[in-house]
Write a structure and sequence with these properties.
301 residues; mainly alpha; globular
Length: 301
């Protein structure tokens, strides 16, 4: 791996950590619990920044045909469910716990591929799946104070995230590039979340938010949108520059970095018992084994 790819991967880890930290800060510390407003702001900002970078010639986006748009609609709705439920879950759960439950989306995608394509699972992957599931179950059992609401939203989030991965893998043709797909997700999310803000009452609740005029709140929301957009861009770039197994390793390292640093940030107040700490370590061990199994199976297939 050359220096440019290493720098790209390190930038990804930094953007990943900052994106989750700013989101967590706005949602938990500032207690802005209006997901349709918060995610609508992020997706509309992402769409606007993507348009600006396209007009400046920094990224390439082609015209969206009607057939391509309709083929992506199921994925866009899953994307909305993913970010909405993820926002609710992240506001209630510590970052390490959120990642432990989020890892189950890999299990969901893996099992879906096994059943739909009738592929045989290796013993390495089966052990890793058991570790991921076991860590999530132990976390829920020994931390009931975060449920049922936090865990319920987390499971909705991982279901949408896992289904979206299956949708991408099972698409026989990809008429849209990654950036075009993301642009469409942004646009549809902005329109739908804007309409939902009225029906859910989030719009009126946000107008009465005590910190609405605070510069700290404005800085947090702006940072979360910008870091989220940067994370999306560098993720697309990294997936186009690195092999899939290398991308998986960097995603893993980014989650470990974000989880580790969150323990030292007093603003997040992440308290864990020895049992829940072991659950977090067990989850990352299962994910590492899963990545190793992916690379081993691909090498000797």
């Amino acid at each position: 791996m050359n220096e440019a790819r290493v720098i790209l991967a390190l930038v990804f880890c930094i953007c990943f950590t900052l994106s989750y930290f700013t989101n967590k800060y706005v949602l938990s510390v500032l207690k802005f619990t209006f997901p349709t407003i918060f995610q609508g702001w992020q997706t509309s900002t992402g769409a606007l920044l993507l348009l600006v970078t396209w007009k400046l010639g920094l990224v390439e986006i082609n015209g969206l045909s009607r057939s391509a748009v309709f083929s992506q609609l199921p994925g866009s709705f899953l994307f909305i469910g993913n970010i909405y439920a993820g926002s609710k879950a992240l506001s209630l759960l510590p970052i390490p716990f959120f990642f432990v439950l989020q890892n189950i989306s890999e299990v969901f995608a893996f099992l879906s591929v096994i059943f739909t394509r009738q592929e045989k699972a290796t013993w390495r992957k089966l052990i890793s799946v058991c570790l991921l599931l076991g860590s999530a179950v132990s976390l829920i059992v020994y931390n009931p104070r975060f449920g049922p609401s936090g865990y319920t939203w987390a499971f909705i989030h991982l279901f949408c995230a896992g289904t979206y991965k299956v949708f991408q893998k099972n698409s026989k043709t990809r008429p849209l590039s990654d950036l075009e797909e993301q642009f469409m997700n942004y646009m549809i999310s902005t329109l739908l979340l804007a309409s939902l803000s009225y029906t859910t009452g989030d719009l009126f609740g946000a107008l009465d938010f005590p910190l609405l005029t605070s510069y700290i709140f404005h800085a947090g929301c702006l940072s979360s949108a910008v870091f989220g957009f940067m994370l999306m861009l560098v993720t697309v770039k990294m997936r186009g520059s690195l092999p899939q197994e290398h991308c998986g390793v960097w995603f893993f390292l980014a989650k470990v970095l974000a989880s580790g640093l969150s323990f030292y940030l007093t603003a997040f107040n992440t308290e864990v018992s020895p049992v829940t700490f072991c659950s977090v370590v067990l989850s990352y061990g299962g994910e590492a084994l899963f990545l190793y199994a992916e690379r081993f199976d691909k090498t000797f297939r």
